[in-house]
Write a structure and sequence with these properties.
With 148 residues, this protein is an alpha/beta fold. It has a single domain, classed as 3-Layer(aba) Sandwich (Rossmann fold), CATH 3.40.50.2300. The chain is built from 3 helices and 7 strands. The strands form 2 sheets. The protein has a 5-stranded parallel sheet. A two-stranded antiparallel sheet has the order 6-7. The N and C termini lie far apart (29 Å).
């Protein structure tokens, strides 16, 4: 799991010290896909990666401390020791970008509530960029540490 320095005393989404940046979380278990997402996020000046979760148990622990504005979600990841935690428990204050080889129309598990965007694998930077712009332009979630 990759963690960036931030205030862990707050349960609200924290913006970086640089203005106009959106915090995000990557939920993915494939190493190459993680590397690609980290690279794509780093190419945008308005995104800040808080963490990468490779199992549901890690995701649960990360979300106990942080509320990212955007969550990049692969639909197939190991549960770890997650207990009853599932995608339906992801925060509704986050915009969810499903990054998966499984189309949402074929997925039978619990889906997050709230705004969901689909970004099918394989993902090009152009499609990633377009999807993130759509999410940001919609203005969902937290910005500058304040709920919108």
């Amino acid at each position: 799991m990759l963690n960036a320095p931030l205030d862990t005393n707050s349960n609200r989404t924290k913006m970086s010290s640089q203005p106009n940046r959106f915090t995000c979380l990557v939920i993915e278990d494939e190493v190459l896909a993680i590397e690609m997402m980290v690279d794509y996020i780093s190419r945008r000046g308005d995104l800040e990666l808080l963490a990468v979760g490779t199992q549901l148990s890690e995701v649960r622990d990360i979300l106990e401390k942080h509320r990212p504005a955007i969550i990049f979600l692969d639909l197939v990841i190991p549960p770890g020791e997650s207990g009853s935690y599932h995608f339906g428990k992801l925060p509704v204050t986050s915009s969810i970008i499903v990054v998966s080889g499984i189309p949402l129309s074929h997925y039978k598990g619990d889906l997050p509530k709230g705004d969901i965007y689909e970004l099918p694998k394989p993902v090009s930077f152009a499609s990633f960029d377009q999807c993130v712009n759509e999410v940001i332009n919609k203005g969902k979630g937290y910005r500058y540490g304040v709920e919108i």
